[in-house]
Amino acid sequence: MKAVVYHGARDFRYEDAADPALESPGDALVRVTRSAICGSDLHLWNGLPIPDRGFAVGHEFVGVVEAVGAGVQSVRRGDRVFASCTLGCGTCESCRRGLMSGCAVTTAGGTRNNVFGFSAAYAGGQAEAVRVPFADANLFPIPEALSDEQALFLTDILPTADMACELAAVEPGDRVVVIGSGPVGSLVQSCARVRGAARVIAVDLDDARLLRAQERGCEVVHPGRENLAERVLELSDGRGADAVIEAVGRPELVSAALGLLRAGGRLAVVGVLFAPVEIPWALVFMKNLTLRSGLVNPQRHVSRLIPLVEQGRLDPTELITHRLPLSEAAKGYEIFAERRDGVLKVVLQP
Ligand SMILES: [Zn+2]
Ligand SMILES: [Zn+2]
C-alpha cells in the first residue's frame, strides 16, 4: 500500500509501505477513505525527537472495515468507521476509568506512546490502510446521517474540544476565554457555546482566524494590538473570566491564562506542550484557581458529540480549508506549518 512515511523532521514521504495485517484476534483492518493533518502532527514535522523511523504518520482517519480478527464483536467487514486517536485495550483498570491515554497495555506500562502515527508500534492513518488494535475499544461505526468528513473530527479534535470544556467546567452563563483560534480552539469556541457560555472570547494573533471566530459568535481579542487582561475584564463586568482554555501549547500562555481568571476560575490546558511551565502559584492559591489538563480519550466523548453533529449544533467541517490527495501530504504539512492560504484543516484523500 501507499502511505505517508516518517523519515525525520520535514521529511514525510509518500511511498510504498508494508500492507497492514491482522496481528491479534482483537485487531481490525481499515481501508482509509479520509485522513486529516493535526496540530500535534506538526510536532513530528518540526522535529519532535522520537526513536522510530519508517512508520506511517497520522492519527485522524476514517474508513471502511476490510477485515476483523476472530475476537472483534462491535464492527464488521464493510462498516464505515472512525477510530479514536488514543488507543486503549478497553479492559485494564485505566481504560475502565475512561483513561485510555493511560492504558497499561497499549502504553506498555507507561513506556510507550499510544497515539496512532507516532511510532512503529501503532502505524498511522495517513495511509491507504491501517491496523486498529483492540478494535472493540477504539473503532466506532459512523452513523448513516454523518459524512466521512464529519466523522473525521470525532477521531480527535472535537472530543479534545469537548474535553477542554469539561476540564474547565464550562457552564451556562459563563464568560469563557479561548486562547488560540486554530482548529482545536475554534471547536472549543463552538463547544463552549453549545454548553451555554454567555460570552466566548477568542484570542489569536491571526486576523483571518479572528474573523472566523467572530462569525462563530465570539468576541475577539488580538493581544498584539490590545491588552488582553484589560479586555477580558471589560468583557466580564470587571470580574475576570469564569473559565479559560489554552489551545495553543505555549508555556508563557499558561501563566498568562491564570491571570485572566476570576476568583474560583478554571483553566484547562489542551494545547500540546512538552516544555516546563512556570506557574504563578500564589495566584492559584490566593484566588482558589483550578488548573487541569490531559490527553484526549475520544472514546468517552463520542456518544454525546454524535447527536450534536447530526443535529447541526456542531459543524466541524466548517474548518476544512484544504483537500489534497494523500500523495500531496507533504505539501499539506508545509501549508499547515507555515499557515499559508488561511489554512485551518487539511484533509487528505487516499
Ligand atoms: Zn489530532
Ligand atoms: Zn487499557
Q: Quick one: CATH superfamily of the largest domain?
A: Medium-chain alcohol dehydrogenases, catalytic domain
**N-to-C CA distance:** 10 Å
Estimated helix fraction: 25-40%
Architecture (CATH level 2) name of the largest domain: Alpha-Beta Complex
Q: Which structural class do you get from the secondary structure elements?
A: alpha/beta
Number of domains: 2
Counting H and I runs of at least 4 residues, what is the number of helices? 12
User: Whole-number radius of gyration?
Assistant: 20 Å
Within the CATH hierarchy, at the fold level, what is the topology of the largest domain?
Quinone Oxidoreductase, Chain A, domain 1
What is the CATH class designation of the largest domain?
Answer: Alpha Beta
How does this model look, in words?
The chain has 350 residues and is α/β, with parallel strands linked by helices. The chain folds into two domains: 2-156 and 297-349, Alpha-Beta Complex (Quinone Oxidoreductase, Chain A, domain 1), CATH 3.90.180.10; 158-293, 3-Layer(aba) Sandwich (Rossmann fold). It has twelve helices and 15 strands. The strands form three sheets. Strands 3, 4, 5, 6, 7, 14 and 15 form a seven-stranded mixed sheet that branches. Helix 5 (157-167) packs across helix 6 (183-194). The longest helix has 13 residues, at 298-310. The protein is globular and about 60 Å long. The mean pLDDT is 97. One zinc ion is lined by residues 88-89, 92, 94-95, 103-105.
